[in-house]
Design a protein that fits this description.
Leucine-rich Repeat Variant; disordered N terminus; single chain; 412 residues; 68% helix; mainly alpha
Length: 412
């Protein structure tokens, strides 16, 4: 019994409750993500600034442009770029260089480009290395607008350092760099630019390079011009080759004939006739010129081939729109023709009606006499009706009365 009693006593005796841990608070969104609370505060601050954006502190806007919330940062950068006062210039440049959001940097660069202050040259040079293409494009446009000679080398470095694997779409940053070099008159680096663009597969750089060549070639010396034209004669862009061939043809330099002959076998069907004409001009050989009919046929074939190429590149709905334009024009022409015929028929009918209608004189003769006019009593003596007599009239009347009386007194 002893051990059993001891067990029962142990079981039946009051037990001490175990200490429980204090309840822990459920972590909120602010404690889970420490960035949410500052971002919310930035949104509240931006909402307060929106009530009076013209009175906002540029430094505060620059701080908000670096917010963790991309939308808040972009809106703050837009408000900062809209400012025209000089205290906003430096914060604007800071955002363009340091904001972690591409949209905010783009907005700030728009503002920097709008004011186009000379102090923004450094900002434009640094922005040429921005990872976003839009920022690089605006930076090149800024440097072309400022026209500072110190920007030539950074622009050239941006072109030569462009990666081979490009983003899809037109290379607007390279286009802006080439145009900026053209505005700066940097003809001494044009060959390097053309060489790099020949190696790159950058979309849309051909027409811009041809424009730069056209503007900067006259600034070179005559010997340099010929060397440059021969160097770009085999360029990847057809529009650049066309420019080089046309210039060599106009110069009629016999030393360029060998280079033109080398292009005959490698040139496309579109530009080969131009090379042949250039060779004829360089050699002063008119016999090589085709007759007019053959040349016209050849040009027609080129136009047909070019039109076919463009037609095949269109989407089905674009082809439908292009094909519907002639039908619409024919329909409009038929409508205008029918309307003109109706107008001519109406004019002929009006002319015929005018010929068969009675004249105005016949209408007046056929009109009935007004009875009120016929009943007017016309006096025998108009003067008696008016009562107007002159002295001569009275003498004449008196003589008539005397003669009448003598005739009565004369014996019969």
């Amino acid at each position: 019994m002893g051990p059993l009693v001891l067990c029962l006593v142990a079981v039946l005796s009051p037990q001490q409750t175990a200490a429980t841990a204090p309840p822990t608070a459920t972590p909120t969104a602010a404690t889970q993500d420490p960035v949410v609370a500052p971002a919310h505060a930035d949104a509240v601050a931006l909402a307060a600034i929106e009530r009076a954006p013209a009175e906002a502190d540029p430094v505060e806007l620059a701080r908000l442009a670096g917010s963790a919330d991309a939308k808040v940062a972009e809106r703050a950068a837009f408000l900062l770029a809209s400012r025209k006062d000089r205290p906003a210039y430096e914060p604007m440049r800071t955002v363009a260089r340091q904001s972690p959001h591409a949209g905010a940097r783009v907005q700030a660069m728009h503002g920097v480009l709008r004011i186009a202050d000379v102090g923004s040259t450094t900002t434009g040079i640094e922005a040429l290395q921005d990872p976003d293409r839009r920022v690089r494009t605006l930076a090149a446009q800024l440097l072309g607008t400022l026209k500072r000679p110190t920007a030539v080398e950074p622009l050239l470095a941006a072109i030569e350092g462009a990666p081979q694997q490009r983003e899809p779409g037109p290379a607007t940053d390279l286009q802006a760099c080439v145009l900026a070099l053209h505005d700066l008159g940097a003809h001494e680096v044009l060959l390097r630019v053309a060489t790099r663009l020949h190696d790159l597969t950058a979309e849309g750089t051909g027409p811009v390079l041809a424009f730069a060549c056209q503007g900067l070639l006259p600034k070179m010396q005559k010997e340099q011009q010929t060397t440059f034209l021969l160097a770009i004669l085999a360029h990847r862009e057809p529009v650049v080759r066309r420019f080089a061939i046309a210039e060599l043809s106009a110069r009629k330099d016999p030393s360029t004939a060998k280079a033109l002959e080398g292009r005959l076998a490698a040139e496309t069907d579109e530009l080969r006739p131009l090379v042949e004409l250039a060779l004829a001009n360089v050699r002063q050989d008119r016999s090589a010129t085709r007759d007019e009919l053959g040349r016209a046929r050849h040009n027609f074939d080129l136009l047909v081939a070019s039109a076919t190429k463009h037609w095949q590149a269109l989407l089905p709905w674009q082809q439908g729109c292009v094909a519907g334009i002639p039908v619409l024009l024919v329909a409009l022409w038929l409508f205008a023709r029918a309307r003109a015929r109706r107008a001519a028929a109406a004019a002929a009918a009006a002319e015929t009606l005018a010929l068969v209608a009675p004249s105005e004189s016949l209408a007046d003769e056929a009109a009935p006499v007004d009875e009120s006019i016929a009943e007017v009593d016309v006096p025998a003596d108009p003067m008696a009706a008016t009562g107007e007599y002159t002295e001569q009239d009275e003498v004449a009347v008196g003589a008539d009365d005397a003669g009448w009386q003598q005739d009565e007194q004369r014996p019969s």
